[in-house]
Design brief:
Structural class: mainly alpha
Number of domains: 1
Oligomer: single chain
CATH architecture: Up-down Bundle
CATH class: Mainly Alpha
């Protein structure tokens, strides 16, 4: 059976990508409650992320495309929204560099494993925690409430630690994949 493209879970992943420009618009334009609108859209995007995995498993619609588009949607959202927040001065630019470089290296490693072993490397629990911590930080930075500054700082450093750990897990998979290939 060919891999289906238009499944409920894939639709939700694509929808998450289309929500990114709306968040960016709300962050850069000055209109009443723009930050709350951006935060609300981020919450909708979080729900699409949770629901796409649920529907994929529940409806038996796990697909190779879904294994690619779901983490890609996360990476696009993380890159664009962190860049916009850095551009407007809400978060440090070095965080954008960490997010983008990590995600690009993981993407290159994933392409390498797919090409050499014909395996799509799925996300791991450390990567999911890194995305959750980064999302929490981005959400708090979007709302920009002074009372939440300590929590915002905690989520910043938690996300950095989790991104480094998740990168180490992905790198280990790539190197193990290379070693296994060399032994055969």
């Amino acid at each position: 059976m060919p891999d289906r493209i238009w499944t409920a879970s894939n639709f939700l992943s694509f929808l998450r990508v289309f929500l990114v420009p709306l968040v960016a618009y709300c962050l850069v334009e000055d209109f009443p409650y723009n930050r709350l609108w951006a935060g609300g859209i981020i919450v909708v995007a979080i729900f699409t992320d949770v629901l796409d995995g649920y529907f994929a498993r529940r409806l038996h619609q796990v697909s190779e495309l879904g294994k690619i588009i779901d983490p890609l949607a996360d990476k696009v959202a993380a890159a664009v929204v962190t860049f916009v927040l850095a551009w407007i001065g809400e978060i440090p630019m070095w965080l954008v560099v960490v997010v983008v470089v990590r995600d690009l290296l993981i993407l290159v490693g994933g392409i390498y494993i797919k090409k050499k072993k014909n395996i799509v490397v799925q996300s791991n629990w450390v990567g999911k925690l890194a995305v959750a911590a980064l999302t929490a930080y981005v959400f708090l930075a979007t709302l920009d409430f002074a009372v939440l500054e300590t929590l915002r700082e905690i989520t910043l450093w938690s996300s950095v630690v989790m991104m480094v750990l998740s990168f180490a897990v992905y790198a280990q998979r790539v190197f193990i994949g290379r070693r296994i290939r060399a032994e055969h």
